[in-house]
Task: structure prediction
Amino acid sequence: MLQRVYVTGVGVVSSVGLGRAAFFAALETGASGITPVASFDASPLGRLYAGEVRAFEPRDHLTRAECRRMGRCSAMALAAARMAVSDANLGPSALAGPRTAVVLGTTMGEAQILEELDEEWIVGGAGAVTRALIPRYGSTLLPIHVARALGAEGMVLTLPAACAAGNYAIGFAADLIRSGRADVVVTGAAELLQELQFSGFVRLAAMAPERCQPFDLNRQGLLLGEGAGILILESEAHAAGREAQPLAEVAGYGLSCDAYHITRPHPDATGSIGAMRGAIARSGIALSDVDFVNAHGTGTRHNDLAEAKVMSEVFGGRRVPISSMKSMLGHCMGAASALEAIGCVFTIQTGVYPPTIGYETPDPECDVDVVANVCRRGKSDVVLNNSLAFGGYNAVTVFARPGVLPAPRPASGKPS
Amino acid sequence: MTPRAVTGFGVASALGVGRAEFVAGLRAGTLPRTMGTDVQTFDASRYPQLREGARIAEVRGFDATRYLGDKGLRPLDRLTKLLIVSARLALEDAGLKAGGTWADATGRGDGARPWPERVGLVVSNAYGSLEAIHELHRVALLEDARYINPSRFPLTVSNSAAGYASIWEDLRAVNVTVSDGNCGALDAVACADVLLGGERAEALLVGGVEAMSEGLFVALDRLGATGASPAAEPRAGAVLGEGAALAVLETSAAAHARGAQVLAEVIGYGTSFAAPAREASLVHASPEALARAIEAALSDAGVAARDVDVVVSGASGLRAFDSAELGAIGRTLGDEACVVAPKRALGETLGAGGAMGMLSAIAYLRDEARSHVVRGTLRAKVRTALVTSLGYYGNASALVMRAA
Result:
């Protein structure tokens, strides 16, 4: 029999707060994490703002030795993982052994380490490159550091699926549990705000000056952010065995690839529509069961129009409420859809849809029911987490209140 | 795992481009042609150690236009071109494409979805486009961040090569990049197994890619891993390699239904992670992790240790890692087990390493190669192969394959 998969704990490092309680409170009030960038001098680029995580001190969460052996991206992932383990009421060695896997997403991983290495090389030549720094580079390391700290001995895997990485990791993690390959998977994603990435988005003319305003007529583009969102996924049997209280059930997920353009979504949004329909079908639910959609909502025109099209194509005349957390956090790249997945858990736990802040003038080309500026209460049994990513990736995960979904069944016979 | 059929493969490697060249090179037991100073991907004159014994296994004379035509390749880096060429060759080898275009779906009935929606890609890569990232860092540092080339920026993203491959080859089912260092390509096979089981594609290109660059050489040379640094003993390092290797993996039923050739089958997978004993260590070779991965893979395949005819190891010339790998193989299969090390010819291709191992295993299973034996003797008939990968951080994976 296929196992149900539950979220039993979450951990957050974000610009609006660390840990579940702070993050949930910020989502409810519509707090903004956007500030002038402090970690590097952004002024020559003509753009100053991002969702930088200023309150995070690695040493508050990691041992001295751990701080020495890993970069800031891994440190955020590990801190969030520890919070998630504790949130799930798991003891410090409860996840030791071969039945726990660690599957994490990111876009660039330890990009800051590579920047330091490159700078040493460019300025001082090959001989100036710090040897000890070299092995700390690589997205591979994120799950390695987390597995080591938790004693996990199962699969360690990074899925660098750009802005859909969180959804990819969560979907694959759920598959590992459902198919019996793991009992618990520590999953989610982490991303750093980093100068090269910031410059790149400025050069692509995609970055807004001060505010990210998804679905607004006067939107000026995206803002970058950073952070880590980690979820403990547990099999039904494992959770029941320790009488854990599930926060949400992970239902189906849908994936597709546009094969159209490296940075822009397909204007017809065919792939994205297919991914959302696939996710719903694979969850064994009807369209009418969907209560809320946590949007990708980057605040670029290309994204917003594609996403609005997906909503109207998938749901027809029914205007399902939608909202973008990126208006508060900025676009946390690889970590975005993991933090938004935790936003879905928030909605299921509290019955609150987080607001899209800075929403002033509806864009007539985006005919969607935006949760504007203040949060809204509503039915919250089934929530969708939508993401579109660099590379033409589309990924949608479905979260449900424990007890509302039918028993999981084998794949439908239709690839999505 | 449910047995999965390999219905073709594409490769760009130090042994050549395409299945025929690869297999011929493996059969001959050739060593890499690019050794010493004859480096093509970067200016080697700055590195005297390259005159004194460091070895590099490049895809010599690699020219993507030969396979893809000369339009539209300009914005792509070496990593992406290696991947697209091997994807094209794999699709053609499996009979899914001919002359670069999709073959007709046969025996599918009217309801069949078009091929592009049924075929996806799962590719391992360890370090991304160091070439593009370094180029942009250089501009930002020496000139001004405002001058970085926006058309090169996409190449810095870790899933860029896979994204471009989807566009070039029109692959609209799942597209996944995985990263687990040297173990990533075997993990990609495990991902593909899960994705096929979930009916997310009917055929998946699965494997790995890594490109040679000056940065990669500098990094590994600084660590003394290329055997070139004055402190290292001669031949104590790996031959640094590059390339792309992709197999077409399908459910046996799908392969059978379309009358595809089956080169071999993948029947088991195992993986494990073991932390180092010392708190301060990061890099470490773990025989425990590999032994556990091998045992899990054999158990997943339902194969007894004595039935493994050949172990296609990842031994690359790095002493500590080779000895941990051979130790784990000896511990789980006995010291008589025949071990081969095709990295002697292919070089250490990192994220592509396990995929090069998997394609090599196919050649051994088809009795097309008997070379690069480093321990034991190869049995007359090779029916079952074990492919092993040992990571630099305590990660290890293993794959069991059998002859078709």
In short: The CA atoms of residues 337 and 392 of chain B lie 24 Å apart. The longest helix of chain B spans residues 78-93.
